[in-house]
Write a structure and sequence with these properties.
The complex is a heterodimer of chains A (259) and B (125). Chain A is built from ten helices and nine strands. Chain A is an alpha+beta fold. Chain B contains six helices and two strands, in the order H-H-H-E-E-H-H-H. The chains are: A alpha+beta (259), B mainly alpha (125).
């Protein structure tokens, strides 16, 4: 009887030691007996940790200035067909009643209703466009950016119907014919795909701020991580009265406005 | 007493590996900052000529999927050098020969769609 208990104890403690070693190697990489370098794990992004967002202080925005639009459209080879029907836009300026159609319109002060406002893809936390895409060509990235994978887009334009902000444009024609000064570092699109703002994910990966933020002479736009309570953008959101476009739709836009 | 002995044995057996792990840790760059540190190094090919001739399309497909969809933009070549997963990395060198892609594809009558959007060496001055 005694012997059997002793035997069981040794068995269990042996298992315990093994489990400890396993746990230690899992929790503390330097305890692992064999060094495991899996680049795919190493560099895989954690979904939902970061949520990039933008705050646009429309009070500082100069009427008629289109530096940000020009810079964005140049950097990303956005075509300009000079024609409303074929228009492709990533960021644009529009009137109060078009950008905030569901905000209070009656007896709105002339100063506010008369200005033009910047509009771009809101990179919604609950994005309707990514839900309807049949090929997952548009998808929610780990960092909150609603990205386009142009390789997969079949041009069905479901996403354009789903987007309540008109942030998506369709390439009715070959865009290459309408790019005056192409930037060689970024691809163009082809006829038959939908395109939109990518929150400059191509620049973020290099540690740069979005092109529009950098181009603005008035520092109207603040870009940052909405999930980081200590970020500059969260500080501004804390201390200012801000609004989103069509918040009642529940899309949770990541672009905020100070009116 | 027995637990003390067990922990002592455990510590003694792992001590060598702990040292090993610590030594290697310092030479490894932090994964978080990796994308900031890596520059496009187009001075060398990522694999042998024979491998790339047979498999460049697989490499490109894999690069495309992992960089666009998973955000894993760093490729670690078998020799340990790190490259950005981008067509521009290839072109950094191969655009010296403007016909690099086209010659072969024309001969083999293969029509990949890369250059519908990506800007090829043929279109750059």
């Amino acid at each position: 009887m005694m012997n059997e208990e002793r035997r069981a104890f040794i068995k269990k403690s042996g298992l315990g030691v093994l489990a400890c070693m396993g746990a230690a190697s899992g929790l503390i990489p330097k305890f692992s007996l064999e060094k495991t370098v899996l680049p795919a794990w190493d560099e895989k992004q954690v979904p939902g940790k970061i949520r990039w967002g933008m705050l646009i202080d429309t009070r500082k925005c100069i009427e008629g200035c289109k530096e940000c639009v020009a810079q964005c459209h140049h950097v990303h080879n956005v075509p300009d067909f000079n024609n409303r029907k074929d228009e492709v836009k990533w960021i644009w300026k529009s009137s109060y009643n078009k950008v905030f159609p569901t905000a209070s319109q009656q007896f709105q002060s002339e100063k506010i209703a008369g200005r033009s406002y910047l509009a771009l893809c809101n990179h919604c936390a609950d994005s309707p466009c990514t839900r309807v895409c049949p090929t997952e060509a548009t998808f929610k990235r780990w960092d909150g950016i609603v990205a386009m994978d142009y390789h997969r887009c079949i041009g069905c334009r479901f996403c354009m119907a789903a987007c309540p902000y008109g942030s998506r444009s369709f390439n009715w024609q070959d865009p290459r014919t309408a790019i005056k000064d192409p930037s060689l570092a970024y691809p163009t699109r082809e006829q038959g795909v939908v395109e939109k703002c990518n929150f400059c994910s191509d620049r973020l990966v290099k540690g740069l701020l979005p092109a529009c933020v950098e181009a603005c002479p008035q520092q109207v736009m603040t870009f940052g991580d909405l999930n980081d309570p200590k970020s500059e953008i969260r500080g501004l959101l804390e201390n200012n009265e801000t609004m989103q476009r069509k918040p009642e739709l529940g899309t949770k836009p990541s672009v905020f406005y100070i009116i | 007493m027995i637990f003390f002995g067990l922990t002592l044995v455990l510590f003694a057996s792992l001590y060598a590996f702990m040292q090993d792990g610590m030594a290697e840790k310092t030479t490894q760059p932090q994964a978080q900052n990796l994308h900031r540190q890596v520059s496009v190094d187009s001075t060398k090919c990522i694999a042998s000529k024979e491998f790339m001739r047979a498999n460049h399309m697989r490499v490109l497909n894999e690069w495309r999927n992992s960089s666009v969809r998973e955000g894993n933009r760093i490729f670690v070549a078998p020799n340990g050098s790190k490259l950005e997963k981008s067509l521009n990395t290839c072109l950094g060198c191969h655009k010296n020969n403007k016909l690099f892609c086209f010659n072969c594809h024309m001969y083999a009558n293969v029509k990949p769609k890369c250059w519908n959007c990506h800007i090829s060496a043929m279109e750059t001055p």
